[in-house]
Structure formats: C-alpha cells, structure tokens
Amino acid sequence: MRTTVTIDSDVERLIRETMHRSRSSFKKTLNDAVRQALSKPQRWTKGSKFIVRPRPLGLLAGIDPAGLSDIDTDIEIDGFKKTTDRLSKAKKRK
Predict the structure, then answer these.
(1) Per-residue pLDDT tens digits for 70-81
(2) What is the 3-state secondary structure (H, E, C) of the chain?
(3) Which pTM value belongs to this model?
(4) Are 29 and 22 in contact (CB under 8 A)?
C-alpha cells in the first residue's frame, strides 16, 4: 500500500540512522519499526485497572485558582438567556 505521511524531523533522523546501521532501505526500516512498535503488548488494555494516586496541590480550601466553578455558572446563564430569548420571540409572534 502506498500512502503519504508526515514524519517529524527527529523521527526521520532516527530512521536514517537505523537505515545506515542496518544497511536497509527507508521502506524496510520504517515498516520494521512500525511493526515492532505495534506488536508490543499495550500497557493499558480494556479492563485493566487504572489507579489514581492523589497528591496534595497546596491549594487553600474554598479558593478555585482556575475558576472552574464559574464555568458551570456561565453555562447555566447562557442556557437561561437562550431560553428567555426564544420565549420572548415566540411571544412577539403571537
């Protein structure tokens, strides 16, 4: 199969170095590298256990430095505005 891919410059350098050491073509070197990488067992598989390790962030209680609590409020306000605009337009048509 022929396809066009964009390879990062550091990846190209690694492929070319491997080509030089193994004295093989670009195509063979690339195929061998992809085949080897994809044939390794994946670290995370469906059903594998994922463990979250909590760590202290050094935040003060009640202070939200990222303002994440405001996002919910903003979404709620936007929804209220859309609903009232829609209702007022419907009322004007009557």
Answers:
(1) 887 888 888 899
(2) CCCCCCCCHHHHHHHHHHHHHHCCCHHHHHHHHHHHHHHCCCCCCCCCCCCCCCCCCCCCCCCCCCCHHHHHHHHHHHHHHHHHHHHHHHHHHC
(3) 0.43
(4) yes
SS3 for 18-43, per residue?
Answer: HHHHHCCCHHHHHHHHHHHHHHCCCC
d(CA 11, CA 84): 55
Distant-in-sequence, close-in-space partners of 13: CB < 8 Å, separation ≥ 6 = none
Whether residue 67 has pLDDT greater than 80: no
Asked if residue 59 lies in contact with residue 65, where contact means CB atoms within 8 angstroms, the answer is: yes
- Average pLDDT rounded to a whole number, residues 32-41: 88
- What are the distances in angstroms from CA 59 to CA 66, 71, 77, 90? 11, 19, 28, 47
**Cβ atoms 30, 15 nearer than 8 A:** yes
Nearest CA-CA partner of 13 in 28, 32, 31, 26: 26
